[in-house]
Every structure is written in C-alpha cells, then in structure tokens.
Amino acid sequence: MTEKHRHDTVAVVERVRPARTQRVAEIQHFGTIAKLPIALDAAVCAASVENLNQLLADTMTLRDLYKKHHWQVSGPSFYQLHLLYDKHFNEQIELVDEIAERIQSLGGSASPWLMMSPR
C-alpha cells in the first residue's frame, strides 16, 4: 500500500467515525406540545396528537402488512394481488407522511412506536 493510499484511507475512516462528544440542545421535550400560533387550546392539541399518534402507529402497521403480503402472495391470482398490495402499500406511505405532518402542525412530535407496544 502506498503512503498516499494509506493517508486517503485514514482520512476516510476519520470522516465516517461517529462524533461521540457532540452535544445538541433538545428542541422539544418528549410528550410536550409546542405552542404554535393556531386557534386550538393546548389540551385539544394534546388529545389530537395522542389520537393521531395511535392512528399513525396503526397506519404504519397496516403499511408493513401490505408489503409482507406483497412479498408472500402466490397462486393463480398472484399478479393481481401483487399489484393490489403494492398499490395499497404506496397509499399507506402517503398517509403516514400526512398524519406525521399533521401531528407536527399541532405542536406534537410524531412518536408512533410508543403506541405500537402492547399495553
């Protein structure tokens, strides 16, 4: 290995090394509602965010199930079902994005994984 190649390799390794000492201020504490200039009370926003996070979790689960069945379908109607599951999967992707953006617009944080765990 030439000296230049060794130097280039070391430079690449240093660029991809995680920054462990980096500290970033928290933008929004988990579970809080940011005060935004909208005409809704904070309690209404909090309740809506909680419900939307549940809807987001359910939509993400449904999206993943559509892809699972998209991969596993077989039989005489394979092609039609394959296309149908793929179509529904793509529609769920759009819904996930819209629901998460709605949560953000209410001042909440989209955290569906908390709703996915068994209670």
General description of the model:
The chain has four helices and no strands. The chain has helices at 3-16, 42-72, 78-105, 113-116. Helix 2 (42-72) packs antiparallel against helix 3. It is flat, with a radius of gyration of 22 Å. The protein starts with a helix and ends with a helix. The mean pLDDT is 84.
Helix content: 55-70%
What gyration radius follows from the Cα positions, in whole Å? 22 Å
Total strands: 0
Q: Terminal Cα separation, in Å? A: 57 Å
Biggest sheet character: none
Multimerization status: single chain
Question: What overall geometry do the principal axes of the alpha carbons give?
Answer: flat
Strand content: under 5%
Low-confidence stretches: none
Order of helices and strands: HHHH
Number of helices: 4
SSE class: mainly alpha
Mean pLDDT: 84
